[in-house]
Amino acid sequence: MTAATTTTARSVCPFDCPDTCSLSVTIEDGRITAIDGDSEHPVTQGAICNKVRHLHERVYHPERLQYPMRRKAGAGKGTLDGFERISWDEAYELMTARMRHTIREHGAEAILPYSFYGNMGILNAEGMDRRFFHRLGASRLDRAICNAAGSAGYRYTMGGSFGIDPEDTVHSKLILVWGCNIVSTNMHQVVYATEARKRGARIVHIDVHRNRTSAWADEFIAVLPGTDTALALGLMHVLIKEGLTDKKFLAAHTVGYEELAAKAAEYTPERVSGITGVPADKIVALAREYGAVSPSFIRIGNGLQHHDNGGMAIRTIACLPALTGQWSILGGGAIKGNSGYSELNNDGLERPDLLPDPNVRTINMNQLGDALLDAEPPVRILFVYNSNPASVAPDQNRVRQGLMRDDLFTVVHDLFLTDTCRYADLVLPATSHFENPDLYASYWHLYMQLHEPVIETIGECKSNFTLFRELALRMGFEPELFDLTEEEMIREALDCPSNPSLAGITYEKLAAEGWAKLNLGGSLSAVPGRLPTSSGKIELYSEAMKLAGLPPVPEYEPIAKEEEPLPFLLVTGPNHSFINSTFGNQSRLAKLEKRPALHMNDADAETLGVRTGDRVIVRNGRGEVRIAVKAGADVLPGVLVTQGLWWEEGNEGVQAINTLTSQRLADMGGGATFFSTRVEVTKGSC
Ligand SMILES: Nc1nc2c(c(=O)[nH]1)N[C@H]1C(S)=C(S)[C@@H](COP(=O)(O)OP(=O)(O)OC[C@H]3O[C@@H](n4cnc5c(=O)[nH]c(N)nc54)[C@H](O)[C@@H]3O)O[C@H]1N2
Ligand SMILES: Nc1nc2c(c(=O)[nH]1)N[C@H]1C(S)=C(S)[C@@H](COP(=O)(O)OP(=O)(O)OC[C@H]3O[C@@H](n4cnc5c(=O)[nH]c(N)nc54)[C@H](O)[C@@H]3O)O[C@H]1N2
Ligand code: SF4
Ligand SMILES: [Mo]
């Protein structure tokens, strides 16, 4: 018997998480046996979350898909029964024949890709796939399910996704964690903030839910959902009235201060208190602290922008650091996202110029239900990869009704039989990221990372890159555009002279060192000087918003006006142990989360006559969900919170929470409104 060979290799965490950790993987005889944080990576610093520490259980999970399967003739949709194994040749034959027929009869617009960031690798999330669908002429997908409203809002103020370097936040003295559950969703920001706290910083968490991040912060401020624009204007009111602004910074680096000040004057602490549920004296105290303490840092989260008014909320909060001149101080400023710095040669990678008809329709991924049921011409082929729409998309009854259509041919490429696979005609096995080369950028820290495969491909799995490359060649598309290696495409992606932050980041450097830090040219951030707003300055007044029919200065607009007038607002955010619906089928992690729970204020529980553990029916015009109550003081009266996108498969009695959410779009960017959901609650019988 020969001794086992044990090696370690470097990898990158591929999930949709701001930390984009560098991983150190132990491999014994070709199998991953342990996963750790890379201790050499400047941000990861050897620490990773519990989810990914056990990622090899997912890679070698007994239920992992290993070969293509098709739904047998006559087997109805809506179940995971009735699949039969086929070869890749047969799968390609099925897809190409179906696509050719559909294009001939109905046009390529009848084909719709549906993908998100199950794997954040540039090649596997927005490389070969996008190029393929552009060349095909398929309907375009507006991938607005995550941060679209907030990014659009932030862009109006700051010109793009430009914040400060998170490594600098150790210098902050006051940290506002605003609508962001960083203990669960951005653990290395917690590491930096904890270091800042050791050096004297105070941490304030502003949220609708007293959660893990509130327990860790020094102070928790509970707001009513969707009222943060008013809160930010209330803070500005006090800052301006009490002369706590930085007039020099405002004059040099902003436009529209006078207009903003006039608007903020309307938002007295008393009025804002009435809107937000935050006591007036707390608003005044926070404003005075924000005006006095420097450097101060705001971590702006995604929770704020999954609302009807989410774009405006983030646009408004993004004005605060400018009022106090924080951008010019080390450790001062904000981060909503930093993807502006890692902008690649997307046009070269995705090739939108290949679209036969540049005016082909675009379907917003938040409105999949309507698209499948009502779009004209109808969607006839749906191609799902890197996403699980039967769990994550809003208005599930409509989504699933659409997916049930007999005349819809649905392909799902995934690692597991997700809830979406219940509706698939063809299921294709995907590799894990450990099996593929790719390039990773973080939307929070500033390191680009190159990934080399650390294990052999499992079973007959194929990466998204390989799948779309081979499909293109079988469709007879130009080999010079599609018969490429990963390395060739990564080199293309990095070739982006218009982005100064990529200066010096070459394939060779990444291959030799594993990662490279984006180059801010010696500045603390893109502020001042590099902001791509039309004025080149921070826009407190935005002409671009006026042109788009939006209020040009921040203004509070209540949420959920189009909803039925039901008594509760329901916020359904992510949980600690899953990433969206990913990991929901892994027993170790699902057990830690126990069961879905509905957080409710004690006063509401008493009025309804329910106690912790009782099952209730939560309903609105879109559907109903049965769930157990957790009564307490974690939410304000009138607010309900439940966390996690749970799998129905394997979880008796669990229903997709997105049954209750709406396809309505937010004020900006076509964003989702998951958290602006009105519901009523009745006592359940079971
Ligand atoms: N563990 C874990 N990590 C993840 C994910 C996951 O599912 N699990 N998902 C990843 C993805 S895709 C994303 S987009 C990010 C999301 O991570 P975050 O940016 O943290 O966003 P959310 O968790 O959606 O919401 C953050 C907080 O906003 C609160 N909130 C909701 N509405 C409001 C409001 O109106 N005002 C205020 N002030 N707060 C509000 C919620 O209660 C929640 O605590 O996390 C990523 N990381
Ligand atoms: N109610 C409610 N709904 C929400 C949210 C919420 O907070 N509340 N959050 C929203 C947000 S912020 C987001 S980002 C979306 C996320 O929505 P999705 O991007 O759909 O997220 P996941 O549920 O993680 O599904 C990703 C799928 O991709 C698969 N996958 C992973 N790697 C690969 C690969 O390399 N190839 C292929 N083909 N598949 C792969 C995984 O196995 C998984 O099934 O959900 C949104 N939905
Ligand atoms: S999920 Fe986030 S915190 Fe966990 S290892 Fe991946 S990048 Fe790091
Ligand atoms: Mo997201």
UniProtKB/TrEMBL annotation:
Which InterPro entries does this entry report, sorted A to Z? Asp_de-COase-like_dom_sf, MoPterin_dinucl-bd_dom, Mopterin_OxRdtase, Mopterin_OxRdtase_4Fe-4S_dom, Mopterin_OxRdtase_prok_CS, Prok_Mopterin_Oxidored, YoaE_C
| Keyword Transmembrane helix among UniProt keywords | no
Q: Which SMART domains match?
A: Molybdop_Fe4S4
Which Pfam families does the annotation name? Molybdop_Fe4S4 (PF04879), Molybdopterin (PF00384), Molydop_binding (PF01568)
Q: What cofactor does its activity depend on?
A: Mo-bis(molybdopterin guanine dinucleotide)
Q: Which residues form the 4Fe-4S Mo/W bis-MGD-type domain?
A: 6-63
Q: Name one GO molecular function term.
A: iron-sulfur cluster binding
* Keywords per UniProt: Iron, Iron-sulfur, Metal-binding, Molybdenum, Oxidoreductase
| Glycoprotein recorded as keyword | no
Family according to the record: Belongs to the prokaryotic molybdopterin-containing oxidoreductase family.
- This protein is called what? Molybdopterin oxidoreductase family protein
What species was this sequence derived from? Answer: Cohnella faecalis
What is this organism's lineage? Bacteria, Bacillati, Bacillota, Bacilli, Bacillales
